[in-house]
Design goal:
The protein is α+β, with helices and mostly antiparallel strands. The chain has helices spanning 2-25, 29-41, 170-175, and strands spanning 59-60, 64-65, 68-69, 86-88, 96-103, 109-117, 121-122, 142-152, 188-199. It folds into two domains: 2-41; 59-199, PEBP-like (Phosphatidylethanolamine-binding Protein, Alpha-Beta Complex). Mean pLDDT is 83; it is low at 1-45.
Length: 200
C-alpha cells in the first residue's frame, strides 16, 4: 500500500513539473496576441532619414523628453502652438541654418519651415505663426514628428513646401537646399534630425 501511494505521489510530482515547464515554454494565444498588440501599438521613431549620407551634428530640445514632444508645442487644447526649443553648437563652415518639421505619419505634412537662421539657441515659441503650426493628429492617435536642423554653407533664398499642408514632394524639397541660389551643389554642411511622437 505504501508503495502504491509513493508511486502515485511520484507520478503527480512528475506530471506537475512537466506541466510547469510546458507553461514556461508555451504562451497562450491570447497572451501572445496581447504582447504583440502592445508592442505594435507603440509607434516607433521614423526610420526614414531624408538627408542620410550627409554629415551630422548633435542638437537637443528641452521640449523632447523620452521621445515625446511636449504638449506646449502642439496645436491642441493642451498646447500653445509654440515651436520646440532647439539648441546646438555652431557648425564650422555654416553661414546659416534652416529648420523643417514634418509629420512622418502622413504624406509630408509640414509643421515648421524656417530659413536664414543664424542663432544656435532657439527658445520655445521662437518661430512665428507664419513658419510654424503645432502637431494636431486625429483624436486618440499618435504621429511621429521629425525636426531637421540643416547647416548651410550659403543661405538659400527660400525653402520649398507649404506649412500646414501635405507635401508629397517633401524629400525633393528638403534635398533642394543642397544646391545654393547660384546652382552650386554641396551646400549642406551637416544636419541633425530629432524625432519624437505626439498623441492627441
Amino acid at each position: 500500500m505504501k508503495r502504491i501511494i509513493a508511486a502515485l505521489l511520484c507520478a503527480v510530482l512528475v506530471f506537475g513539473a512537466t506541466a510547469c515547464n510546458g507553461g514556461k515554454e508555451s504562451v497562450p494565444a491570447s497572451l501572445a496576441d496581447a504582447e504583440v498588440s502592445e508592442t505594435t501599438a507603440k509607434p516607433a521613431s521614423s526610420g526614414k532619414d531624408y538627408l542620410a549620407g550627409h554629415e551630422t551634428f548633435e542638437a537637443t530640445s528641452t521640449d523632447l523628453v523620452d521621445g515625446v514632444w511636449a504638449d506646449i508645442t502642439s496645436n491642441t487644447l493642451r498646447g500653445s502652438n509654440s515651436s520646440p526649443a532647439l539648441s546646438w553648437a555652431p557648425v564650422e563652415g555654416a553661414a546659416a541654418y534652416a529648420v523643417y518639421m514634418v509629420d512622418m505619419s502622413t504624406n509630408g505634412f509640414l509643421h515648421w519651415k524656417s530659413n536664414g537662421i543664424t542663432e544656435t539657441e532657439l527658445p520655445t515659441g521662437w518661430a512665428p505663426s507664419s513658419d510654424y503650426i503645432g502637431a494636431y493628429p486625429p483624436e486618440g492617435s499618435t504621429h511621429v514628428y521629425d525636426v531637421y536642423i540643416i547647416a548651410l554653407r550659403t543661405p538659400v533664398e527660400r525653402l520649398k513646401g507649404g506649412i500646414n499642408s501635405q507635401n508629397p514632394k517633401f524629400e525633393e524639397f528638403i534635398n533642394a537646399v543642397d544646391t545654393d541660389d547660384a546652382g552650386n551643389t554641396g551646400n549642406i554642411v551637416a544636419y541633425c534630425r530629432l524625432s519624437g511622437t505626439f498623441t492627441a
